Inverse folding.
């Protein structure tokens, strides 16, 4: 019985190749999971010109090197990101907001790999304090001095909008590879 089990195991190992044959993706350099990829915006962003879900262009800040000095992602390589949240500027001084997240990057051999990283938020200037002060103070003064003419001023806060959100092309993001990838460097 032991001999039959041993023979069956050996035949099974030979049939599967016993790990001696290289796989289809064993050439090249391994770009490990969670490798840091520093990115920057390739052009400026304005909250007025974007929609949630828009794809934005990013660039790699410097070479990503692994192993024995092999460059797997070159500086200025193209990458993409996605607008994951967008809020237009609003009444009562509410500021605009842009949130972006890295999505993919191109390696030196032309592969496009999926990446993830910090969600970066860019906010406009808040003017909420001013808007609420303008909306509350005149009616309170009107009530104290029994002047009904100041009560309609409470709606003045509706006229004050928050600041636009923008991101300059030097804005940095950190991204990481999501899986191990073989790159022909």
């Amino acid at each position: 019985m032991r001999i039959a089990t041993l023979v069956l195991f050996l035949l099974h190992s030979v049939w599967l190749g016993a790990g001696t044959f290289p796989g289809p993706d064993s050439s090249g350099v391994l770009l490990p999971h969670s490798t840091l990829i520093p990115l920057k915006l390739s052009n400026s962003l304005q909250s007025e010109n974007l929609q949630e879900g828009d794809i934005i262009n990013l660039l790699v800040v410097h070479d990503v090197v692994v192993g024995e000095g092999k460059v797997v992602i070159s500086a200025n390589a193209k990458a993409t990101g996605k607008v994951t949240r967008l809020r237009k500027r609003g009444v009562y001084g509410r500021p605009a907001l842009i949130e972006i997240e890295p999505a993919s990057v191109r390696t030196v051999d032309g592969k496009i790999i999926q990446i993830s990283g910090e969600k970066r938020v860019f906010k406009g200037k808040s003017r909420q304090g001013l808007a609420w002060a303008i909306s509350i103070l005149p009616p309170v003064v009107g009530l104290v001095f029994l002047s009904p003419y100041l009560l309609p001023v409470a709606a003045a806060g509706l006229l004050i909008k928050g600041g636009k959100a923008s991101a300059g092309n030097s804005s940095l993001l950190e991204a990481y590879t999501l899986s191990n990838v073989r790159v022909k460097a």
Q: What stands out?
A: The chain has two domains: 28-126+164-185, 128-161. Residues 14 and 20 are 9 Å apart (CA to CA). The first strand starts at residue 29 and ends at 31. The two ends are 51 Å apart (CA to CA).
